[in-house]
Amino acid sequence: MNKPPTQSRRQFLQKAALGGALAGTVSLPVLANADKLEFPDDLPEWMRAPGGEFGNYGQPSKHEQQVIRWISANPAAPGNGVSWTPLHDLQGTITPNGLHYERHHNGVPQIDPEQHILLIDGLVDKPISFDVKSLMRYPMVSRTCFIECGGNSNSGWRSNPIQSQAGYAHGLVSNAEWTGIPLKLLLKEAGIQTAAKWVIAEGADAAALNISIPLEKLLDDALLALYQNGERLRPENGYPMRLVLPGWEGILNVKWLRQLRLTDEPIMSRDETSQYTELMPDGSARQFTFINEAKSLITSPSLGMMLPDNPGIYQISGLAWSGRGKITRVEISADGGDSWVDAELQGPVLDKAFTRFSLPWHWQGEYAILQSRATDETGYVQPSREALIENRGKHGFFHYNAIVSWEITEEGDINHVYGF
After folding, report:
1. Do 259 and 334 share a structural domain?
2. Statement to judge: residues 123 and 254 lie in one domain
3. 168 lies in a domain?
4. E strand or H helix at 227, and its extent?
5. Secondary element (H or E) of residue 309
6. Is the domain of 251 the same as that of 306?
7. pTM, 2 dp
8. What is the C-alpha separation between 174 and 96, in angstroms, rounded?
């Protein structure tokens, strides 16, 4: 990484670009020759003939076909892989269903809802099963929350910063409105025995993924989700039913749910022993780290974009989220963390959900490093990369939530760096 000359950096700090942008009224950029803009003499072709037909299910414009998930799959087993949400191409906080990130262990099952059964058994008074039609009779609630893969942003553990667009490095996280049945209603109907402390959740995919979840979480805010953003779940997101555990790592939000078995201890499956555990600096292994800690990401401007030659006011925008509750503060730095200014949080700020933040920034054509830092309602502050590595060591893979740094060169190019 090329650091800025001392004089350039000092001038940059003295001009206090962020503070200046916030002090008083901000003048927005004006289009060149705006006073000379006028409609052309001829109407555009789409105004000279009737439009096309409309269909039974809407699709994005053909001019937005670049807004897609980026897929990484195992060539030897194409059904095993991930797809990233293009966070850098989206606005607001809700992720469209067709762009929600995915993690698959053995492909996407095409389940006939007429044949699918959810079984609750184990340490219960009476094992009970539900088909989809019977579940539709239960009272439902809606909850907007994020789901984040435990491996999201894991390229940050590398020695050198990866040069991928924001969503394609940090997009194993999405935010949606989930509608379904509070799990506690179904569990209590089966009758929970005193010895029950854990629940083994299993999916109906060909991997029969199973994993242990503390019973306490399922009795708190867990949903058996049947709908996503108002429509029935899509196959890749768990149709006909899935678990949603707000704020907890994605692997626990089991898709295509077929069984909940109550037990007195965890099952110690592959995905909670050899996977989703973390080697610590002292040689011990960190296990059952369910909660996704506070995190933020500037999505614009970010890598893959470029600031034009003309300096001026630019809107910094991004997302923040925490598995422990609401985001209470997001700070922005343009000097690699030497100084910080509070961003505006766009409401409503929801519990365990995406919060959009923004801040006008006066770029004066000089070198800068943009960073965002989130704080949640528990007081937890998103760490720097150096602090995260000091605490967790250099050999991590999961739960990377360090501050992300975007370098802005004098020419307006944007790169991913690890701070000054």
Report:
1. no
2. yes
3. no
4. strand 223-228
5. none
6. no
7. 0.91
8. 9
Q: What are phi and psi of 112, to 5 degrees?
A: -80, 115
Q: Could you tell me the maximum CA-CA distance found in the chain, to the nearest angstrom?
A: 79
CA 86/CA 93 separation, integer angstroms: 13
Domain final position from 236, 253, 286: 286
Q: Is 377 left (phi over 0), alpha (psi -120 to 50) or beta?
A: alpha
Residue 78 lies in a domain: no
Domain at 240, CATH number: 3.90.420.10
Bond from prior residue into 240 cis (ω within 30 degrees of 0): yes
Q: What 3-state DSSP class applies to 328?
A: strand
- The pLDDT value recorded for residue 136 is 97
Strand partners of residue 129? 119
328 and 281 housed in the same domain = no
Task: Check residue 1 and give its pLDDT.
Answer: 41
Q: Is residue 99 within 8 Å of 67, Cβ to Cβ?
A: yes
**Nearest by Cα to 186 from 262, 120, 253:** 120
Intervals of the chain under pLDDT 70 = 1-37, 420
| Domain membership of residue 281 as a residue range | 117-139+179-286
Claim to verify: residue 269 and residue 300 sit in the same structural domain = no
What is d(CA 271, CA 407) in angstroms, rounded to the nearest whole number?
A: 36
* Tokens standing for residue 279: 């080697």
pLDDT for the residue 274: 84
SS3 breakdown of the chain: % helix, strand, coil, rounded to 5? 15, 35, 50
d(CA 224, CA 244): 6
